[in-house]
Design goal:
There is one protein chain. Helices cover about 25% and strands about 30% of the residues. It contains 14 helices and 25 strands. The chain has helices at about 1-30, 40-50, 65-70, 85-90, 100-105, 140, 280-295, 310-315, 335-340, 360-365, 405-415, 420-430, 445, 465-475; strands at about 75-85, 120-125, 135, 145-150, 155-160, 160-165, 170-175, 195-200, 210-220, 235-240, 250-255, 260-265, 275-280, 305-310, 325-330, 345-350, 355, 375-380, 385-390, 415-420, 435-440, 455-460, 460, 480-485, 490-495.
């Protein structure tokens, strides 16, 4: 009987102790931490992760936007441009310029503003060196008579246009100042879809505005530059960071505060942010800025092929089993591709070891190179994978560096020039030409030439672009120079000037 009572007492004590331990465990692990289910436990640990002891909200250091914003804001500037009355219609009429209409929307009601007094517009820019070099969009400064740059601390400078590249919608400015804050150039190749980025700029004249989003896509082609330039490169970074009119030319940075792109356009029927924005990747920006500084224009390396995205229909038609890569639809005679051994029907898989998923990726990869550069090409021909090396050429079919001395020619002739846009060439049935976009006092104005004249020949030699214009004008010659061409209304004219 005693043994039985002892056993019962032992069991009772064990039960009491077990209950106390269980109750204590509940108190420690559940009641004190405030959860009683796995769902609540997850909320608890996430809450602990996102809040400090004071209960204020915080993010992990790797997701903090504060450092990136602090590093970037002082180096993003407000770019104000001023236009004479004669340029206003061209700059602001959204019906005439689809690029500006897509970016700014119908903010002017589809009407040309009054052209009786000078006007101004604004955008953004990014300081990329302490001695005052600034990258912005070409369309921000296009046709401007004066460019003003305003820093975050309200200091203001008149900027000089160093060079421009409509093919990538980029331009390089310079202000006369030193020890300026600048944004470190990052690596857009390492940018991942889903990664956080910040857009910094001056939307609606609101300075130093920071918005956040993620990378939605890369190597995006939205056909916004194609109609304007034969050699346009569209390989945009797509994000959902809010970008509005005035952000154009501003910075797209990663969470380290490194520049990964220059904000350029938005996809919107109204001209205001509605979900997506697009930026030129910094890989292209670096190359273009270096070229503009060193040569005055971009050294465009060309492969000399026509290309198509590889769709399922095209793959079925051409009996291609894999949808990876870009289809070669044609090869230019005596071009870099032909000399390297590339043939029509080949599928380009890689450039310099990097996968090529679409035509935009291929154009970006080639667009980072200069004439004379060698690029490794991996391609598929039938069932065989081939490794080739191509030496890129320039627009004139050789590997020379082309340097267009805009300032020298402008001062000599009293004019500013631009390559003729694709749409105008098609309308006038031209193979090429150089357009006089601005005339000052000088030889051409004295000869009777007017703005808008398209030079198609110099001394009976055809002129296709600015490079050829520069070469022909620099060649030693006897006597004068005969300019032949056409006005936008179709009227043919010729003008002669002396040496």
């Amino acid at each position: 009987m005693m043994k039985m009572n002892k056993s019962i007492l032992t069991l009772l004590l064990a039960a009491i102790v077990g209950g106390a331990v269980a109750l204590g465990g509940y108190k420690v692990f559940f009641e004190e931490k405030g959860y009683e289910t796995f769902e609540k436990s997850q909320r608890y640990f996430l809450s602990n992760y996102l809040s400090d002891t004071s209960g204020s909200s915080k993010l992990p250091e790797s997701l903090s936007f504060v450092m990136a914003a602090d590093l970037t804001r002082p180096a993003v500037v407000h770019v104000k441009t001023f236009f004479s009355p004669k340029d206003i219609g061209q700059q602001f009429n959204p019906q005439m310029d689809p690029f500006l209409r897509d970016f700014f929307g119908d903010g002017f009601g589809g009407q040309i503003p009054p052209q009786t007094e000078p006007k101004e517009a604004s955008g953004s820019g990014v300081i990329i060196s302490q001695d005052g070099y600034i990258v912005t969009n070409y369309h921000v400064i296009e046709n401007a008579d004066k460019i003003e740059v305003i820093l975050e601390d309200k200091r203001s400078y008149t900027a000089k246009l160093i060079g421009k590249d409509p093919s990538t919608d980029l331009a390089l400015l310079k202000v006369g100042e030193s020890n300026l804050p600048f944004v470190k150039l990052g690596d857009s190749d390492k940018l991942k879809i889903g990664e956080w980025v910040l857009a910094v700029g001056n939307p609606y004249d609101l300075t130093s505005t920071v918005t956040a989003g993620i990378v939605s896509a890369k190597t995006r082609n939205i056909n916004i530059l194609r109609g304007k330039e034969n050699f346009a490169i569209e390989s945009f970074i797509q994000t959902d960071a809010a970008v509005n009119p005035g952000n154009s030319g501003g910075a797209l940075v990663n969470l380290k505060g490194e520049l990964v792109g220059v904000n350029t356009a938005i996809a919107s029927p109204t001209g205001s942010f509605s979900g997506y924005s697009f930026a030129v990747p910094v890989g292209i920006v670096k190359k273009v800025m270096d070229d503009l500084l060193k040569y005055g224009e971009v050294q465009r390396g060309l492969l000399g092929i026509s290309i198509q995205d590889l769709t399922s229909d095209l793959a079925k038609e051409k009996d291609i089993k894999d949808l990876n890569g870009v289809y070669v639809g044609g090869v230019n005679e005596k071009g870099a591709a032909e000399e390297a051994g590339i043939k029509t029907g080949d599928v380009i898989l890689k450039i310099d070891g990097h996968d090529i998923s679409n035509t935009s990726a291929l154009q970006e990869a080639i667009g980072r190179h200069r004439p004379g550069d060698k690029v490794g090409i991996t391609l598929l021909r039938g069932d065989k994978t081939l490794e080739l090396v191509a030496t890129l050429k320039n627009k004139m079919g050789n590997t020379d560096v082309v340097k267009f001395d805009d300032k020298k020619i402008s001062e000599s002739l009293g004019a500013e020039f631009a390559d003729v846009e694709a749409g105008e060439k098609k309308k006038l049935k031209l193979q090429g030409g150089v357009k006089v976009i601005k005339l000052k006092e000088g030889k051409l104005r004295s000869a009777g030439m007017k703005e808008g004249f398209i030079i198609t020949q110099i001394n009976k030699v055809k002129v296709k672009n600015l490079d050829e214009l520069a070469i022909l004008l620099e060649k030693p010659r006897k006597g004068g120079v005969l300019f032949e061409g056409v006005y936008p209304n179709g009227q043919n004219e010729f003008y002669a000037i002396g040496n």
